[in-house]
Each structure stands twice: as structure tokens, then as C-alpha cells.
Specification:
This protein is α/β, with parallel strands linked by helices and 236 residues long. It has two domains: 7-157, SPOUT methyltransferase, trefoil knot domain (Alpha/beta knot); 174-235, Helicase, Ruva Protein, domain 3 (Orthogonal Bundle), CATH 1.10.8. It is built from ten helices and seven strands. The chain has helices spanning 17-29, 46-52, 56-60, 68-71, 95-106, 124-127, 144-157, 174-190, 199-213, 217-231; strands at residues 7-12, 34-38, 63-65, 77-81, 91-92, 111-115, 132-134. Strands 3-2-1-6-4-7-5 form a seven-stranded parallel β-sheet. Helix 1 links the parallel strand 1 and strand 2. The protein starts with 6 loop residues before the first strand and ends in a 5-residue tail after the last helix. The chain binds S-adenosyl-L-homocysteine. Residues 81-83, 115-116, 118-122, 135-136, 138, 141-142, 144, 147 line the site of S-adenosyl-L-homocysteine.
């Protein structure tokens, strides 16, 4: 990939080592060599290495994390993959539009594409860490590695089709956004706007607003400054 940043494939709690190997192979055939594993059931594992074929090096360099939050902390663009649309969800992007968008985003920061468990996909909390969700049109859900293949193919085919990025401002990373959301939740509780018995839905809706806005680091700092001043008005 001819960009200063790279795209990572993130697998959340994969249960079959063979699938991890097949994912490494699928991604590498399309030029994506960064693999992040969140709590894999069995890894490293000989079955993964066998299924990876020529992509054993991708497995060797794979990073293992204990949460999705940690896995995407430095990314500025995080996309979840899901078989179907869930109730309250973040913005949708079709796989065909995702390709050029990924190349566009790579001009500003690291990108993560997140795939779910073979049995149950991604939880709502995990999807809430994403700016977009993409669904591959299909009759039934795809095998994990097949889904990775389709998405990586779309990215591969879109190389060179991204509009040039003209903004110089650094985008907020996933970790910086998470700190903003924590701060926002604390303040909303303090001022009595957020009902501690029913916090989830409001916070999820607010997350979606800020995720859509593609906040820069400077903008996050301004918002957090407002939150701090709300907590301590006399300090200004
Ligand atoms: N039974 C699960 C399906 C899991 S398939 C469920 O109903 O949610 C494992 C993973 O492959 C999914 O979490 C998703 O990341 C990916 N995947 C499978 N089919 C997909 C599709 N049609 N579109 C997007 N991602 C898909």
C-alpha cells in the first residue's frame, strides 16, 4: 500500500485457529498485512499456520489485544462489519464505497476494519467504537475469511481512486474519542441530564453524533475544555 498509514484487519474473539490463518491469507492476497486479534481462543496454533499458506509472516507479526478498545486505540477510522442492520446503529457504508473511503482516510491516519465472532458477530458496544458499519449483501452470513476477502478486495480495487485529502488537521484517535465520551458521560451525570439508571441509549446516540463529525484533536480539546469548565465554572 502506497500510503504512510496502514489498514489493519481486527478479529474479535475468533474461536477457530483455522479461520485466523485463512483471514491472514485472504488479507495478504489483497496487500493488507496487519492483523490484530482480540482475545483469540487459540493462538498461535499450527492449524492457523497451515491455513495461512504464504501468509505465515502475517501471523507472526499479528498483535494480540485483550479488548477492541485497545486494538483500535490509535486508529482514526474504524469500520465494523455486520451481517445485518441492528436497531440503533452508527452510519452505514456499502462495501463498494468503503474501498475509496479507506484510501481517503489513510491519508490522515491508521484504519481498522473490525470483524466479529463466528458465532455471534460484534456486540453493540463493539459496534459503537466504529464510525461506520458495512454489510456485504448476501443471502446468509459469510464465513469469516470469506467476509475478510470481499472487504479487502474492495479496498484493493479502489487503490488510486481516493480524492486527495486537503485538510492538515490531525484527526482524533479512537482513544481520544473514548476519553471524550467518558468525560461527557461524567459531566452529564453530574449536571443531572443523564439518568444513571438509563445511561446507555443517550450515550450511544451522542457517540453516533460525534463519530459522524470526524472530530480533529483540536476540536476534541475544545469540547473537553467546555466540559471541564462546566464541571468547575469558577476556574475560568
Ligand atoms: N452468526 C453471526 C455471523 C457471524 S459471521 C451473526 O449473525 O452476526 C462472522 C463475521 O464475519 C461477522 O461478525 C462479520 O464480521 C463477518 N461477516 C459475515 N458475513 C458478513 C456480511 N454479509 N457482511 C459483513 N460482514 C460479514
Amino acid at each position: 500500500m502506497n500510503s504512510s498509514h496502514s489498514t489493519s484487519i481486527v478479529l474479535v474473539e475468533p474461536s477457530h485457529p483455522g479461520n485466523i490463518g485463512a483471514v491472514a491469507r485472504a488479507a495478504k492476497t489483497m496487500g493488507i498485512e496487519s492483523l490484530v486479534l482480540v482475545n483469540p481462543k487459540r493462538f498461535p496454533d499450527p492449524e492457523a499456520t497451515v491455513r495461512a499458506v504464504d501468509a505465515a509472516d502475517v501471523l507472526e507479526r499479528a498483535v494480540v489485544c485483550t479488548s477492541l478498545k485497545e486494538a483500535v486505540r490509535s486508529c482514526t477510522f474504524v469500520v465494523g462489519t455486520s451481517v445485518r442492520k441492528r436497531g440503533l446503529s452508527c452510519a452505514q457504508i456499502p462495501p463498494r464505497q468503503l474501498g475509496p473511503r479507506v484510501w481517503h482516510e489513510l491519508q490522515r491516519g491508521p484504519v481498522a476494519i473490525v470483524f466479529g465472532r463466528e458465532s455471534s458477530g460484534l456486540s453493540n458496544d463493539e459496534l459503537d467504537l466504529c464510525q461506520f458499519v458495512t454489510a456485504i449483501p448476501s443471502i446468509n452470513s459469510l464465513n469469516l475469511a470469506a467476509a475478510v476477502q470481499v472487504i479487502c478486495y474492495e479496498i484493493f480495487m479502489a487503490a488510486g481512486r481516493a480524492p486527495a485529502e486537503d485538510s492538515e488537521d490531525a484527526l482524533a484517535t479512537s482513544m481520544e474519542l473514548e476519553h471524550l465520551f467518558e468525560h461527557l458521560q461524567t459531566v452529564l451525570l453530574e449536571i443531572g441530564f443523564l439518568d444513571p439508571k438509563q445511561p446507555k441509549l443517550l450515550m450511544r446516540r451522542l457517540r453516533h453524533v460525534y463519530q459522524r463529525a470526524r472530530l480533529t484533536q483540536v476540536e476534541v480539546n475544545i469540547l473537553r475544555g467546555i466540559l471541564s469548565a462546566t464541571q468547575n465554572p469558577s476556574s475560568r
